[in-house]
Design goal:
This is Bifunctional enzyme IspD/IspF. Keywords: Isoprene biosynthesis, Lyase, Metal-binding, Multifunctional enzyme, Nucleotidyltransferase, Transferase. One of its GO terms (molecular function) is metal ion binding. Its cofactor is a divalent metal cation. The structure is a single chain. The protein is of the alpha/beta class and about 375 residues long. The chain has twelve helices and 19 strands. The protein folds into two domains: about 220 residues, Spore Coat Polysaccharide Biosynthesis Protein SpsA, Chain A; about 160 residues, 2-C-methyl-D-erythritol 2,4-cyclodiphosphate synthase (60s Ribosomal Protein L30, Chain: A). The strands form five sheets. Strands 1, 4, 5, 6, 7, 10, 11 and 12 form an eight-stranded mixed beta sheet that branches. Strands 16-13-19-17-18 form a five-stranded mixed beta sheet. The chain has a two-stranded antiparallel ribbon with strand order 2-3. Helix 5 packs across helix 6. The longest helix has 15 residues. It is elongated and about 90 Å long.
Length: about 375
């Protein structure tokens, strides 16, 4: 069944708890610490696993080794921490004792790349079945043997299991109480109790980190997923008034009239600034520098642009490029375009080959065509990786 065909509105589902199993001491992945606490592209593995369930479950329980409580608390703020047992099964049983919701998801902390659609598919299946788990069909040929191939294994009906695995809470508790020994996962426990387990589509990115090579693979997956690309645009207009020059993109250009505005009326820098604020969903210049405030009267607009750039970088964004178009009949922009690009680059600490300043006319149409003022349109790209 295609993944999108399993989706339902969250309001159709009963409240669920996710129980994240993180009590292992696994050292096979290297790093000198349990793998769930190691960094992965700037964020600990456990923290990534916890965040994946934000907004999808009512409560998060993390089962940890008693020695790891302080470390886990920093990576899973707001989660309930429970001491685990000597085996995976014992850890799950310890966590289940604290689950109060009708349904529960059991997830391996070592699967930090799990995505919302996989979680939603499991939650949705629990509205019609006592248990559900994501999996991928085996597509490779399967052999049995040691140094040499002894036989071929039929792959029909074989699946690669993933987590989170979901259950009606009472049914899973009873299944664990009746299960002797330890199991590979909770589906094995559920099957032993006779529960019907629905298979929902998993995802190739939902890998389990076991060895050192898995870190590199997970990092590649998350590099693309963690990238946040924002596009912002701005538009501004200033009318002509008395004066002998205009300031455009930080450059003073001699002209028979000046531009009117509360600050220095630099329509170019105002528009680029607004484009950055727009990409950050931070409103416009007026929100940050109200024209009603006298302290900004006559201010160099570089102050506004520098503030927007600082705000963007403070949120982890780099500025990919700037493209500004000045709309006017006069003055001529071409002779000053390189100086304008250079000045914008200085204010933004950005290479000039990432900055475009150009001009166009309106073929004598409209206020700009009548020489009543200058408009500007700007687009900015912000990138967080």
């Amino acid at each position: 069944m295609p993944l999108e065909d399993t989706m339902r509105e969250p309001s159709d589902r009963p409240d669920a708890t996710v129980l994240i199993v993180a009590a292992g001491r696994g050292q096979r992945a290297g790093g000198g610490m349990p793998k769930q606490f190691r960094d992965l592209n700037g964020t600990p593995i456990l923290a990534r696993a916890v965040r994946a369930f934000a907004g999808r479950v009512a409560r998060v329980i993390v089962v940890v080794h008693p020695d790891d409580r302080a470390q886990a608390a920093m990576m899973a703020p707001g989660a309930t921490l429970i001491d685990g047992g000597a085996t995976r099964g014992a850890s799950v049983r310890a966590g289940l004792a604290h689950v109060e919701t009708e349904t529960v998801l059991i997830h391996d902390a070592a699967r930090p790349c799990v995505q919302g659609p996989v979680i939603d598919a499991v939650l949705d299946a629990l509205t019609r079945c006592p248990a559900a788990a994501p999996a991928l069909p085996v597509t490779d040929a399967l052999w049995r043997g040691a140094d040499r191939v002894a036989s071929v294994q039929d792959r029909a009906g074989l699946w690669r299991a993933q987590t989170p695995q979901g259950f009606r809470t009472a049914a899973l508790r009873a299944a664990h109480d009746a299960f002797a020994g330890d199991a590979a996962d909770d589906v094995e426990v559920a099957l032993a109790a006779g529960l019907d387990v629905e298979i929902v589509p998993g995802h190739e990115d939902n890998i389990k980190i076991t060895g050192p090579e898995d870190f590199a693979r997970a990092a590649r997956i998350l590099e693309t997923r963690d990238m946040d690309i924002r596009l912002g645009n701005g538009f501004d207009v200033h009318r002509f008034g008395p004066g002998d020059h205009v300031v455009l993109c930080g450059v003073t250009v001699p002209h028979g009239r000046g531009l009117q505005g509360h600050s220095d009326a630099d329509v170019g820098l105002h528009t680029i600034t607004d484009a950055i604020y727009g990409a950050l969903a931070e409103g416009d210049i007026g929100r940050h520098f109200p024209p009603s405030d006298p302290q900004w009267k006559g201010t160099d607009s570089a102050v506004f642009l520098a503030h927007a750039v600082t705000l963007a970088r403070g949120r982890g964004f780099t500025i990919g490029n700037v493209d500004a178009t000045l709309i006017c009949e006069e003055p001529k922009i071409g002779p000053h375009a390189t100086a304008m690009r250079t000045r914008v680059g200085e204010i933004m600490d950005l290479a000039i080959d990432r900055i475009s300043v150009k001009a166009t006319t309106t073929e004598r149409l409209g206020f700009a065509g009548r020489g009543e003022g200058i408009a500007c349109l700007a687009t900015v790209t912000l990138v967080k990786a």
